[in-house]
Structures are given as C-alpha cells and as structure tokens.
Design a protein that fits this description.
With 104 residues, the protein is mainly alpha-helical. It contains one helix and two strands. It has one helix at residues 2-73, and strands at 85-90, 93-97. It has a two-stranded antiparallel ribbon with strand order 1-2.
Amino acid sequence: MDRLMGAQSSAARNGGSAWKSLAWIGGALATAAAAAVAAVLAVFFAATVVVIALMASCLLALAGLAMRARRSTARARPADPSIIEAHNVGGHSWVAYGWDRQAR
C-alpha cells in the first residue's frame, strides 16, 4: 500500500508542473480579464459623474436665471396718476380709491 501511495505522489510531483503552468496561465488571463472589465466600468462611471455634473450645472444656471428674472420683475414701478385702485369687496361689488383726487 505504501508503495502505491509513493508512486502516486511522485507522479503528482512530476506531472503537476504541466497543470501548474496551465493554472498560472489561466490565472493571468482571468486577472487580465478582470482588469479590463474594471477599466471599462471605471470609464463608464466617470462618464456618468460628468453627465450628472453637467446636468447639475445646467439646473443651477436655470435657477440663477429664474431668480434674476424674479428680482427684475418684482421691482415696484412708479404708479401712473391716471390709474385708480379698486378692490373687490364681495360678489359684484367694487370699491375704488383715488378717483376723487386730482392728479399730483
């Protein structure tokens, strides 16, 4: 029995070098494939971040334009003396102010 076990271990030692080389080649190929996939994913996610940054900057620019437009239209303009002020007090009833005053 010992003789049989010794024969198997020596065969494994001598024939194992071919399998070992094949395993090294397979490992190197798997590592290269994983690195290629990682590089593609890194480029994809970098492009995604660039697109998100571009969209955020466009949104920020539009918000700035909206605030600028709001500020410019919110300014009170001088009142025209020929315009009177009227308020609805309910239903079809209105109260007008300034119609009995002369223009300044």
